[in-house]
Write a structure and sequence with these properties.
2 copies of one chain form a homodimer.
Chain A lengths: L1 H6 L8 H4 L6 E2 L5 H9 L9 E5 L5 E6 H5 L7 H4 L1 E2 L10 H11 L3 E5 L5 E6 H18 L13 H28 L1 H6 L2 H29 L8 H34 L4 H32 L8 H25 L1
Parallel strand pairs in A: 1-2
Antiparallel strand pairs in A: 2-3, 3-4, 5-6
Helix pairs in contact in A: 6-7, 8-13, 10-11, 10-12, 10-13, 11-12, 12-13
Chain lengths: ~325, ~325
């Protein structure tokens, strides 16, 4: 099935060499047009040759000849006269993300793969490149929350359970970390219950801000853009965005806290509002930072940068968001 | 740029007719092989023809002729003798997701597009199909949390801010809904502060369970699998998965609550543990249900099924998860 083919392919760190096929249609430079057509006619599968690859005796790729070139030439001409010299080629070490970028510009059906001496090592189809990246990207949304790349809506119940459950246990463990932080301020909450009401607001905002930064970073990794773009610049941008988004959202949330606390009879509603504003700004800045660093760290460790990244991220944003609010309230208001 | 090309394409409800190009290389059935080669030689751009499309005077597509067919035939033969009759073709109304499924199996470079009378309307390239879906899928991870499809790591700061901020305000508004529910139980929390500590645990687990269901549903929509798979079956599966995952995770969380409440001197630790178990199971079942229904509802309303779906989803799971725990505690423990 097509869908499964898409799903079964490749990690982000796959290279062209791992998906290429052995070369088909290699010929020597002195082959004539008539000889090449003869070669074509006598193949078992006449459809398999898209290009002829003109290679020297030592296997170095000199040029390519299309069927169109053969049609437009005289039978006696030799291929070295009509070939396209120095054709575009990949190296076996070219990362797939880079190869896809190149293929989007060229849109050939087939690409030769040559080593550093120019020796033809294999061929790779354009659709293979697209398919591998489409599969990778398709899996990403689910991977963030611990959904296996291979899972489909038609996956049997018990298999789905086995695939998803371990990550939910990991999530529980990380949620305990956030709960531990909240627990440390149990005394504060007992005195100012309004803070408990704002726990989901802090967690939700910093989590969503962090996930935006996470998604843009994963987008950059997948499309191979992070090679040219300095990580420091991305970190600063997300920190600044977190500060600005957190401050503005924090103003609204602070106003809500003021109204809530005042109507509730809680003491020092203005101070509580200030706590929310500062905590929201700080938490969203950290979320921007974590959103960039979580996938990059996973990648540096050799893991899939998307794998369960949202689970790790939201734990960190939960801890910082709720912890900052409770710590500030304890320090300023109590 | 390649990456931008990927990004700029198409919504999920695009059809083949909207991305097809006008046909190139149409010829009449009585054209000879020599005539077709002559046609090829006299084109401005010799590379533009991949297939000759043999059409009747009324424009009905009868067959296709490849350059390879021309090479292997005699100059005097007419194309109707050597063409592949009844070639595979798309209709202008074929949805892109379906076309990609078909293209993954066939892997042609180019597909003809014909209307219900068989009249050739245009052609569509294999890479166009892959590109459009890759772009769609690539955007999805970010779309869930309100990240614009067009945003890149290199997008200027203020533009990023303008693109992301509105969704953060939406998220804040929905977080207030969850806070409102918690606020309704302020009295319960004031009496049993341990419940506040478990708020992030409930919210985190039901949110992650819901996002798994959301991701698998979006995967099904994007890959066009939901056409053949009944929604009711998917809902039942996700409800059952939520129940099983919620129950097992709930057992661990209940044990943690028991230990925490007991060591804390809170009254009725066993009852609180039961509250956690029931709330976790119920919340995760609702998360499974919402995870399927949120994208399907967005789609039914004519919206992008991924758009901000995780924001809507986590609000609902927050409300059910935390609300169920606090309501149960109020009813059973107080």
């Amino acid at each position: 099935e097509g869908a499964d083919t898409v799903a079964l392919v490749s990690e982000l760190d796959v290279h062209v060499g791992e998906i290429m096929s052995p070369p088909i249609g290699t010929v020597s430079p002195d082959t004539t047009v008539a000889g090449a057509i003869d070669n074509l006619v006598h193949r078992k599968s006449v459809t398999e040759v898209t290009y002829f690859y003109v290679v020297t005796q030592s296997g170095v790729l000199q040029g390519t000849v299309t069927l169109r070139d053969l049609l437009l030439s005289k039978p006696g001409q030799v291929l070295s006269e009509i070939m396209t010299v120095d054709p575009f080629s990949f190296s076996p070490e070219t990362p797939l993300s880079e190869a896809v970028q190149a293929a989007l510009g060229k849109r050939y059906r087939l690409y030769p793969v040559t080593d550093e001496e120019g020796v033809l090592q294999g061929i790779v189809y354009g659709w293979q490149l697209f398919e591998s990246v489409a599969g990778e990207i398709n899996a990403q949304t689910g991977t963030l929350v611990g959904l296996d790349k291979e899972e489909r809506i038609s996956t049997p119940f018990l298999q789905s359970f086995r695939m998803r459950h371990p990550w939910l246990q990991v999530n529980l463990l990380t949620a305990f970390a956030a709960a531990f932080v909240v627990g440390a301020f149990e005394n504060t909450i007992a005195q100012i219950v309004a803070l408990a009401v704002f726990l989901p607001v802090l967690a939700g905002q910093s989590g969503n801000t962090g996930c935006q930064a996470l998604a843009i970073t994963l987008r950059g990794i997948t499309l191979g853009e992070l090679g040219d773009y300095p990580v420091r610049k991305l970190v600063f941008k997300e920190l600044a965005l977190g500060a600005m988004n957190g401050f503005i959202v924090g103003l609204v949330a602070a106003a809500a806290m003021w109204i809530y606390a005042a109507s509730d009879g809680t003491e020092a509603p203005a101070l509580l509002a200030l706590v929310i504003l500062v905590a929201m700004t700080g938490a969203c800045m950290c979320s921007g930072l974590f959103g960039v660093m979580v996938p990059l760290t996973l990648q540096r460790w050799g893991a899939d940068p998307a794998m369960a990244s949202s689970i790790f991220l939201t734990t960190m944003t939960d801890i910082v968001g709720m912890g900052l609010m409770l710590a500030l309230a304890t320090a300023i208001v109590l």
